[in-house]
Specification:
Blueprint: E1 14-27, E2 30-35, E3 38-44, H1 51-63, E4 67-68, E5 74-76, H2 78-81, E6 84-89, H3 111-127, E7 131-134, E8 142-156
Parallel strand pairs: 3-6, 6-7
Antiparallel strand pairs: 1-2, 1-3, 1-8, 4-5
Length: 161
């Protein structure tokens, strides 16, 4: 060892962000979350994630310039447009498909941590003044997304892509 500090890799909360004309979530035949224009966020929480990951991704998503301005350029954010966010927990974003044919989920956060950080992420988005709808954590959900563009982005709190 050369005396350099050992750096432990922290988690990387993952999100699939889709610009949407509208979106909704149904659980057991009942619509539990619904938005008009805005973004649908499919959020995956990893076992090494913490509050800083939730804060970072919430701010990043709210400020992403993925909406057109008057010239048709992607120059406006969710905050600029006053759009809404539909946030759906999706632990399968941590599915590891590199070996075999069945995904492994050992890097996904345990339910207690996942739920806590999911709620923290939702709270962070709300604190920015945005309208937020959600799915139900750990429920079987039917998610409808009417992608606008289509515009779909992959984000993670460690900025690996």
């Amino acid at each position: 060892m050369d005396g350099a500090p050992l750096l432990l890799e922290r988690g990387k909360m993952r999100a699939v962000v889709q610009r949407a004309a509208r979106g909704s979530v149904v659980v057991e035949g009942k619509t539990v979350g619904k938005i008009g224009a805005g973004v649908v966020v499919l959020l995956g929480v990893g076992r090494e994630d913490g509050p800083e990951d939730a804060r970072y991704l919430a701010g990043k998503i709210a400020n992403l310039r993925i909406f057109e301005d008057e010239q048709g350029k992607l120059n406006r954010s969710l905050l600029d447009t006053g759009g809404a966010a539909l946030v759906v927990s999706q632990f399968t974003l941590y599915g590891d498909c590199r070996q075999g044919r069945r995904p492994g989920f050992s890097d996904a956060a345990p339910a207690e941590l996942g739920g806590e950080l999911y709620e923290m992420f939702v709270g962070e988005i709300k604190s920015l003044g945005l309208e937020v709808a959600t799915g139900v954590f750990q429920a079987h959900m039917q998610v409808e997304i009417i992608n606008d563009g289509p515009v779909t982005l992959l984000l993670d709190s460690k900025k690996t892509f």
